[in-house]
Amino acid sequence: QVQLVESGGGLVQAGGSLRLSCAASGRTLTYFLMNWFRQAPGKEREFVASIGWTWGSTDYAGSVRGRFTITKNDAENTVYLQMNSLKLDDTAVYYCNADGGRAGNYWGQGTQVTVSS
User: Fold this and answer.
1) What percent of the chain has pLDDT over 90?
2) For residue 11, what are the β-bridge partners?
3) By C-alpha distance, which of 70, 76, 116, 62 is closest to 94?
4) How would you class 67 by CB atoms within 10 Å of its CB: exposed for 0-12, middle for 13-18, buried for 19 or more?
């Protein structure tokens, strides 16, 4: 079992920055793919960014590439999402996801990000 706790959401003006954190506990994350998803009101949950826990390879949705950066801290078992140049369309609940394949798929409770004009 993996427990995920997100933090760092809040209200920010357009053009501003926020850093989300996802603290993982319960087991080692070797070979897990750590993801950030988001869900805006009335829309489906969508992929934002991912990082491979073992190799550190990253991927981004086109809508955030160049503005968001996903990183990890092995010692703290934490994944971060640095969000810069935030836009109104970035308003959503952001969810951390740990995809371990056969080892299971786990979600955090989400953290609200609201971008105002």
Assistant:
1) 97
2) 114
3) 70
4) middle
DSSP letters, 9-38, are: -EEEETT--EEEEEEEESS--TT-EEEEEE
Are 20 and 8 contacting, i.e. CB atoms less than 8 angstroms apart? Answer: yes
- Determine the Cα–Cα distance for residues 48 and 84; give it in Å rounded to an integer: 14
Over the stretch 65-101, which tens digit does the pLDDT of each residue have? Answer: 999 999 999 999 999 999 999 999 999 999 999 999 9
What are the structure tokens assigned to 1, written together?
């079992």
Q: How far apart are CA 48 and CA 23, in angstroms?
A: 18
Tell me the β-bridge partners of 7: 21
